[in-house]
Amino acid sequence: MFYSWSIAFSVLTCQLLSCFSQSITTAMNEHEIVPDVISVAPSEIIKVSYSSGVSVNMGNELTPTQVKYEPSVNWPADPNAFYTLCMTDPDAPNREEHTFREWHHWLVGNIPGHDISKGQILSEYIGSGPPLGTGLHRYVFLVYKQPSKLTFNEPYLTNKSGENRGKFSIAKFAVKYNLGNPVAGNFYQAQYDDYVPLLPHKRPAAQNT
Ligand SMILES: *[C@@H]1O[C@H](CO)[C@@H](O)[C@H](O)[C@H]1NC(C)=O
Questions:
Q1: Which ligand 1 atom is nearest residue 126's CA?
Q2: Over 80: is that where the pLDDT of 120 sits?
Q3: 1 alpha carbon to ligand 1 midpoint, in Å?
Q4: What are phi and psi of 19, to 5 degrees?
Q5: Phi and psi of 130, rounded to 5°?
Q6: 69 lines ligand 1 (CB under 6 A)
Q7: CATH class of domain segment(s) 24-202
Q8: CA 43 to CA 183: how far, in whole Å?
Q9: Which distant-in-sequence residues (6+ apart) come within 8 Å of 70 by Cβ?
Q10: pLDDT tens, 69-85?
Q11: From the CB of 200, is ligand 1 less than 6 Å away?
Q12: How confident is the model at residue 22, as a pLDDT?
């Protein structure tokens, strides 16, 4: 009797809470992040919030102005493990002709738990800079759980230049460092606005996203 009541209660709770919200796995499949970026979608959500007041939410549209500065990021982490975080744009220069796929915006390794400030920056954060007339780009956040603390053999990329950002593949990077599939993810979309030409790396002409 108690057992059946508790099942009924769990089903009800599920209906009232999580079962109404779409899962990140479904959202990443629907927006073709699988297979454009990764082959297996993560099951956990990365919470990403910007100081402008906006948050990333499974493909919502944000503006380059809103995502200028490095966001705060959180995910369900094991405090004793190390993680790699990436933000990447598969739609460079646009979703149909993605000859620069992927243009990566942020890459941090050896993050203890979810404390990004203690991680090793490989590529500094650069906000979205989709060129005029290229439509919506997808900006994908992924977190990988590392097998251990790693020695990365990558160039350090600052936010002052767009060099070496394009033709990246987070999936290949994951294979190179034996990271497996991502454990958490999220994404937003953005198109051109009048902040794009003011991005630090855009000031000298360059092809970017
Ligand atoms: C670029 O990076 C520097 C640190 O290297 C930081 O102080 C600055 O705020 C960053 N600029 C933007 C627009 O994120």
A1: 14
A2: yes
A3: 61
A4: -70, -15
A5: -65, 125
A6: yes
A7: alpha beta
A8: 6
A9: 106, 125
A10: 999 999 999 999 999 99
A11: yes
A12: 79
